[in-house]
Amino acid sequence: VQLVESGGGFVQPGGSLRLNCSASGIDERVYSVSWYRQAPGKEREEREMVARLSNTGSTYYAGSVKGRSTISRDNAKNTSHLQMDDLKPEDTGVYYCSWSLVRSGAHWGQGIQVTVSS
Predict the structure, then answer these.
(1) 65-86 CB burial, b ≥16 within 10 A, e <16
(2) Cα 34 to the center of its chain, rounded Å
């Protein structure tokens, strides 16, 4: 299983970004797709879940992004996305996509930098 993120970059406060995660090598059911953020100065182990979409359609959003972000998944293309609007400096960090598969568990991408600054 390979996950590759794209769509990150530099954006001014109030701007928008759409993060993309492209999955390959998936040959089992997907339980959920998620996005995590590793804040500046934090270790990778301290990354926090930003959003999750389960295979039932239920969603979770961290309080810091709720109302400003939307997680989605395209089953046919094996992609997941995180639309982030009204970005704030505190949204800065390395964003990781994670797919949880029913048999093999969690898989992670390499991460992509998002910087929100004026």
Answers:
(1) beeebbbebeeeebbbbbebee
(2) 5
Query: Three-class SS of residue 53?
Result: strand
**Taking every pair of C-alpha atoms in the chain, what is the biggest distance, in angstroms?**
44
Locate 52 and state its tokens: 């999750």
Compute the radius of gyration of the chain from its Cα atoms: 14
Spatial CA neighbour of 6 closest among 22, 25, 24, 27: 22
Q: What are phi and psi of 71, to 5 degrees?
A: -100, 145
Q: What is the pLDDT of residues 8-37, one digit of tens each?
A: 999 999 999 999 999 999 999 999 999 999
